[in-house]
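<instruction>
Derive structure tokens from the sequence
<data>
Labelled lines for chain and fold:
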Amino acid sequence: MLLWLCQDIQSRWPIIKINGHKDHPSARNAGKDCPGKYFPWDKFKQMLKREENKRKIQIFVRFHNPQGVWDVIEKYHPFPDALYQQWADSYKTPG
């Protein structure tokens, strides 16, 4: 649900990066560690990046059934995140 919410917000606003509260100087100065030590922040950021790469790929490739493609990649490819990253990066324009 949180992943969906962040994606929805990013689709509506020009948000480039999502940070935790603890990533801001004011929170660090106050000793806050939000979202807390038990929140899987690294895993969450990995999931956000994966979805961002899928969106980039879909813009250029326009699969009829993108979820079917993602399901196959994630089931059979040993490093799906690396594949998505390399694939999405291949669409960057030089300069």
Observations:
- The chain has a mean pLDDT of 89.
- Helices lie at 2-12, 25-29, 41-61, 66-76, 80-89.
- The CA atoms of residues 57 and 90 lie 9 Å apart.
